[in-house]
Amino acid sequence: MKPKSQIVNLPVYQPGKPIEEVKRELGLEQVIKLASNENPYGSSPAVLEAITRELANVSLYPDGSAVELTGVLAKHLGVERSNIIFGCGSDEIIALITRAFFLPGDETVMADQTFSVYKSNADIEGAVTIEVPLKDGTHDLSSMLAQINDRTKVVWVCNPNNPTGTIISEQELTSFMDRVPAHVMVVLDEAYYEFVTDADYPQSISLLERYPNLVILRTFSKIYGLASLRIGYGIARPEVIDLINRVREPFNTSRFGQAAATAALLDQKFVQECAELNASERDFLQNEFTRLGLPYFASQGNFIMVDLDMPSKDAFQSLLKQGIIVRPGFQVYPTYIRVSVGTPEQNRAFVKALENTLAEKAITSP
Ligand SMILES: Cc1ncc(COP(=O)(O)O)c(C=O)c1O
284-292 long-range CB contacts below 8 Å, 24 or more apart? Predict the structure, then answer.
């Protein structure tokens, strides 16, 4: 057999251990997962009702063009239906963009520490990834601009950036977009849009009129709490949506996903409450890091990247033994962990465990 040469050495995704397995292996009664930036408050109660109603229809294919959900979302965002495409998570929209645009040897530009799915999909299509170092944990847009050439097809800007949580402002974005050549698509990944509280954050949808090469990604996995139902979306000019739609499978989102997303969108009170709780708990954690003398990147998301000044894998193991799962292993920041903002109770349990980890480190380090 002759697979595509570019996939032969691709790493296979290693999912985190399920909570139940961690409990069994370590003999723990309670395990708190703060590793995947999920919503610790679950989802709107209206979602359960919507899913229950859909149970009667499991034998029927979903609506391939998600007519009802598209209408509700278009109204919510103030765009036309033709501006929207849904995917099996925004992960799928990333894959569809690479599938529709990259030929082997094309170039794509992204930060050196950002959401890994951009590069893995570019690799699959044989595109060459140019990674531009973050500056103080933030996208360095002028250096990214300097890497664009005739072979560049797509630039990825994750805002807030996963894993650092930093944002670029509207002014920074527009001055970048003004300089990006028209043949280059800019994908602005706003998976954590609803958590942002900084007034300088771009109102990106209003920029679509000015920039025909802009694609915005958002998701129902984060603040809406629907990660398991796999539904995200892209917003762009109709001619761009049409191109991405050509490589989409006909039934790429499920009945449950569509029904849940529709119900979730109609409950903005839940979204608002979660955003407020996240902001105050994000402040709590950041203040605790300051108290403990730990450098961190000021975050606008529902996660924070903090420097523990020890190999992050060791910190991970120490926290795991205490029943807390966080995300270690960031290439550019080997002593940082990323922790999702949990409920008040979870965050206090995390801080207590973190203090034990730091005390252990103080004893063992020379
Ligand atoms: C920046 C960013 N983009 C996209 C995604 C994909 O989310 P989903 O496929 O669940 O919509 C994630 C998930 O963690 C993310 O952090």
Answer: 284/344, 284/347, 285/339, 285/341, 285/347, 285/350, 285/351, 288/351, 292/354, 292/355, 292/358
pLDDT computed for residue 231 by the predictor: 98
Task: Tell me what the mean pLDDT of segment 207-218 comes to.
Answer: 98
With a 6 A CB cut-off, is 357 part of the ligand 1 pocket?
A: no
**Nearest to 212, CA basis, from 190, 253, 242:** 242
According to DSSP, residue 306 is labeled E
DSSP-derived secondary structure for 2-24: ---HHHHTPPPP-PPPPHHHHHH
pLDDT band per the 50, 70, 90 thresholds, residue 361: confident
Same fold? 9-38+269-361, 45-266: no
The full set of domain ranges for the chain reads 9-38+269-361, 45-266
Token pair for 234: 């892209």
The predicted-structure confidence for 262-287, as pLDDT tens digits, reads as follows 999 999 999 999 999 999 999 999 99
Whether 40 lines ligand 1, by a CB cut-off of 6 Å, is no
Arithmetic mean of pLDDT over the chain: 97
Say if residue 366's pLDDT is above 70.
no
Among the atoms of ligand 1, which is closest to the Cα of residue 36?
14
pLDDT digits 0-9 by tens, 226-265: 999 999 999 999 999 999 999 999 999 999 999 999 999 9
pLDDT at 218 over 90: yes
Residue 158 beta carbon below 6 angstroms from any ligand 1 atom: yes
Q: How far apart are CA 144 and CA 334, in angstroms?
A: 23
Assign domain 45-266 one CATH number from 3.40.50.720, 3.40.640.10, 3.90.1150.10, 1.20.1110.10. Answer: 3.40.640.10
Instruction: For the domain made up of 9-38+269-361, give the CATH fold.
Output: Aspartate Aminotransferase, domain 1 (3.90.1150)
Ligand 1 atom 2 nearest Cα: 191
